[in-house]
Each structure stands twice: as C-alpha cells, then as structure tokens.
Design a protein that fits this description.
seven-stranded mixed β-sheet; single chain; mainly beta; 0% helix
C-alpha cells in the first residue's frame, strides 16, 4: 500500500506565503511523477505544478500559467517528499490542494504502475 500525507495548508492574507508538503510512503519502487492539484468550490480539479522523473535530462517541472513565477515545486528524492512553495498568494488561490503520485509499486505479487491521491489540504487566502 502507498500513503500520501499532506501538510502545510492554512489561512493566509493576500500576498503571503505557505509551503505545502506531501510525504509518500509504502511499497514504492520508483516514482514516475508527483504533482499538486487544486479544486476550488464549484470548479474542476486542476493541475498546479508537477515534477516528472526523467532518466536522461533530469526531472522536468510543469506549472499552471496562473501560478508561474509565484509557486515553486520541488522534491526530496531521499524522503519521497514533494513540496510546493507558494508566494504572493491571491484570493483566487483558495482551494483544497491535493498531492498526486504516479509510481511503480510492488503489489505483493507483481510490480504495477499506479496513481495515488492525498486527502487534500485546505488553503484559504483572504483579501
């Protein structure tokens, strides 16, 4: 089994900063990608930022246009932990933020590539 534990959400004023963490544990053989998604009330879940593991050119990061220049995604490979540093927060960043993991895992009988989600952490930015 694989578990994702998120932390770091909270309430912050516009212009402030927060740092989200997502720790992955369990029978993880290799990580294909990790990312942060968010879902605001009445809206669809959207990608915020992600890191895709690459064997030759190094990890690749991807950001939603709305957060470029304000958010930074990073990963501690030794700890299987993903971070999201959020600066210059805006009220429109208010949402539940979810951690996503795509990894090759040991199921007990075979290796399989699966997709996992954290429980979500609330980020509220007041104006």
């Amino acid at each position: 089994q694989v578990q994702l534990v998120e932390s770091g959400g909270g309430v912050v004023q516009a212009g402030g900063s927060l740092r989200l963490s997502c720790a992955a544990s369990g029978s993880i053989f290799s990580i294909k990608a990790m990312g942060w998604y968010r879902q605001a009330p009445g809206k669809q879940r959207e990608l915020v930022a992600s890191i895709t593991s690459a064997t030759t050119s190094g990890d690749k990061t991807n950001y939603a246009d709305s957060v470029k220049g304000r958010f930074t995604v990073s990963r501690d490979n030794a700890k299987n932990t993903l971070y999201l540093q959020m600066n210059s927060l805006k009220p429109e960043d208010t949402a539940v933020y979810y951690c996503n993991l795509v990894a090759r895992v040991w199921t007990g009988s075979v290796y399989d590539t699966s997709d996992y989600w954290g429980q979500g952490t609330q980020v509220t930015v007041s104006s």
